Amino acid sequence: MGRTRRIIDIVAGCVMLLVCFLLMTDPGFGYGFAILFLIISMIAYGVRLLAYYVTMARFKVGGISVLYKGLLILDAGLFALCLKNVPKAYGLLYLLGCLLVDGIVDILKANEARKLEARHWRYRLFFGSGKILIAFSGLFFLGSGDVLILIYCAGLAHSAITKIINALRRTEIVYIN
Amino acid sequence: MQEDFHYYATYCAAYLAGYSHEESLETGYASQLVDLCSRTFLNKVHGPLSAATTQLQAELADEGSDIISLQDITRIWSSFHFLPGDLNASVEKRSKKYLNRYRLICNPNGDLLVDTINLARKGGMESKGLAMHVLADTWAHRYFAGTPSFVINDAGYFFEIIDTEDGTEEIAIEFKHNPVAPDDPVKHIYTASIRQESEYSIMNLGHGRAGHLPDYSYIKYSFLPAWGGYEKIVKDNPSDYYHAFCQMVYALKVLRNSGEVFEKDRYDEEAVKPYKERIMEILTRRQLLASNDWKEFGSFLSGREIEDFDIKKYQMEYTQAGEKDKNDTFLGRFFIAALAQKSMVTNKIFMSGNLLAGYSADYRSKGFKGIRDYKKLVEFRYRERINEYGKNKKNN
What we know:
By secondary structure, chain A is an all-alpha fold. Chain A has helices at 3-25, 27-55, 64-82, 88-115, 121-138, 145-168; one strand spanning 173-175. Chain B is α+β, with helices and mostly antiparallel strands. Chain B has 17 helices and seven strands. In chain B, the strands form two sheets. Chain B has a four-stranded antiparallel sheet with strand order 2-1-5-6. In chain B, helix 1 runs antiparallel to helix 2 and helix 8 (125-140) runs antiparallel to helix 10 (237-256).
C-alpha cells in the first residue's frame, strides 16, 4: 500500500467514526441520513459498474451484461432517491439480511477451521452466532429507526476501525537477491 | 494438478533425473506440500504465516475485497500456482488496469520460470520440489491468472473433445455448483465456481470457472476464455502434462549440475522416451486421480516402495526444534523457499509497473522494510553468505 493510499484510508476511517458518533447522538437525523447513504451507495455502485464496463468489461467475452447491470442499478438508485419516504422496516430488513448472511458465512468458516484443527474456530463461531442472534432479534423491532441506527453504526464503526488498522499494517515484501 | 502429479509423478521425474530414492521422495513431498501449506497449517505448526503457498476455501472466503486482501491473494496464487507467462504482454486498445490483469495470465516457458529454477539452486530438495510444483502448474493452469478477475478468468462454452474412429467428437460439458458433489466424467458433469460479475470475487480466481478440468490429465477440451476475444482455445491436457513431465526431468537435471544454465522450451524427451507409452497410458486413462498408476510406475523405476503422502511426516521435527534450529528442518527449509519464491515473484511483478501483487522493497537499496516474517529470509541468506565466506577462506 502506497503512502497516499494509507493517508486516504486513515482520513476516511476517522470521518466514518465521526459520522458514527453523530448518528448515535441524534437518531432522528440519523435514520434519514442512513437511508440516504444507502441510496447514494447504490447510485455510486451503478456508476462504478458503468466505469468498469468502459475500462475493462467491454473487452470481455459477454461483458455487455455488466453494462445492463450498471444501468439497472443506477436507475433503481435514482428512483429510490426520488421517493419522499422509505418505510423504516425496509431499511432494517436490508441490514438484517446482510447480518444474517455474514453470520452464516462465519459459522461455515468456523466449521471448516475446526475440521482442520485450526486455532481460531471458537472465535469465529462466537461472532457468527452473535450476528445471527442479532439478525433474528432485530425482526422484533422492524418499525424502530433506533435499532436500525444502532446496527448501522456498529457496522460502520467496524469498517472504519478495520480501514485504519489495515492502513497501519506493514505490507511491503522485502526482496533480497 | 493434484497429488498424482505433484507427489508421485514428481518423484518419477526426480528419479529419472538421477536423484536417489530418498531425494526423489523429498522432492515429491515438497512439491505436494505447496498445495497444502495454508495459513491454517502454518498456525498449527507455528510457522511464519507469510510462507503460505495456498489458501483453503475458508481462508479465501475470509479475505475481503480490500486492496491488501487482493494483493495477498495475488501473491500466493501467482507465485505458486499461476506463474505469469509474460509480464510485458500487450494487447491493443486496452486500459492499463486491464493490461495489469492480462499480464498475470499463466503460461509455460516465461521469464519467471527461469527465475524460479535459478532460485531453486540456492536451496535443498525442498526448493527443488517447490519449483517443480510451480513449473508443472504453468502447464496445467495456463490461460488463467492467479488474481481474482472477472474480465480475465471467466470462461464459458466448454466442450470435451473425444477421439473417435471417424475423427473427433465434441460433447458439451455441464457445470454444477455444488462444491461437495463429485465430478462425473462419464456424464460430462463437473463442478465449477458460480458466475459472479464482480471483478474481485474469489469465484473468479484462477481456473475456478473451469472447475477442476485443468487438474485432470486425461481431458482434452475447448472453451472461450473471457480475455480471448471470442477465439476458441483447445486445452490438450495429456500433451501439456507430458511436456510438464519432460520439462521437470530436464529442470531437475539442470539443478543437479551447478554450472548448467536452464533454458526455456527444453524438454528431456530422450530420458523419458523409453517410458513414453506407459506415461501416456496413465495420462489418458479416464480417471479423476491417477495416484495409483504413478505410484506403480515410480516403484517400477526405483524398485522401492513409495510411501503415501503424510502431511504430519515432518511436523514434529519442526515443532520440537529450537528457534535457532528450525531453519535446519525440512519444513523450515520449505518455508524459507516459499518466502524466497513469493518475494522474487512479487518483486518482478512490482518492477513491471503492476501493483496487483503489492509493493516490493529491495533489501540492498532500502534495507529491511515491510512484513516481519521476511526477516527469516534475510537472516537465512545472511547466514548462508557467512558460511560461504568461511568455506572460501578455508579453501584459500
